[in-house]
Fold this sequence. Notes:
One of its GO terms (molecular function) is phosphatidylglycerol lysyltransferase activity. This protein is mostly helical and about 300 residues long. The protein is about 80% helix and about 0% strand. Helix 3 runs antiparallel to helix 9, helix 6 (about 110-140) packs across helix 9 and helix 10 (about 225-235) runs antiparallel to helix 11 (about 250-260). The mean pLDDT is about 80.
Amino acid sequence: MQIKLIGIWVVRALLLGAFLALTLYVFDWLLIRRQSATLLARPGWLIWMTAMYISAFALRAWAWRTYLQRRVSFADCMHGLFYSLFLNHILPIKVGDAVRIGYIATRQAITWDEAAHSVVVLRLLDMLVLGAIAATGMLALGLALSTAFFWFFLAASVAGCGAVYMWLRTKPYAFWEKHLRLLQSGLAGSGGILVIGTTFVSWLLEAWVVVGVIRAINLELSFVQGVWANSMTIAGQVFHFTPGGVGTYESVMSFTLAALGIRFQDAYIVALLSHGFKFAFSYVVGAYVLLRVPISFHQICDWIGKKKNRNE
Length: 312
């Protein structure tokens, strides 16, 4: 596990270093201000991006509810996702999933173990979908940098799978039996197809945030290329260690868009604007859930501690 942590922090340092280098060499305040004004002057694109982003979360909430055999409401699933998004954008560590688990586990029909299981499975499904899109894009788009991206993605995938395997092998047979049963019931039949399908479509919809920014500031990029760029960027967020993944998001997206033929200065601005949009969205929905379904700071700390203790 020590080697894994060292590897993760090496990648984090490289991504942060890339972000600082980009900021040093391509940051242009006047150009950023001008492009920001251009985006704000295109309310049609902002409304479309917001609608697509909300729709992406609605599909994930639907998939989550379906996986839990519809024992919780759609609204509860949306609120859990919004809390997770909000906290991941205000705290330097990723604790959103712990709160998402704790929030849904307060529903009478769901236990903590079932909630944790569902969040882990759907997170893994997210990564599988993003990985499949990223790998397909490398082949289909014929990128000059595809080899480097491929080996980076492969190394990260192997490290992640190895960590999961090392953790799972410490669990007793009863643990495996219970979670395999939950997995089978969650993904069986038409419900499983719905969970996988809606998860896939949700990531297509989220890509409109990137594509919308690019179209609004008059750059050229196809929707398919935007889906690939968004998938690569979100997959890179597994190395998140700052509020909202600041630095890692901008680094991965800038290099990904540059691989698609957009000059680095423009790619950097697209990364800043799309990430800024997501930050603004997370704060708005965070304010909404805090007013609509408030939870206490004590509850949040309790859920984070409970998740940590269960993982040890």
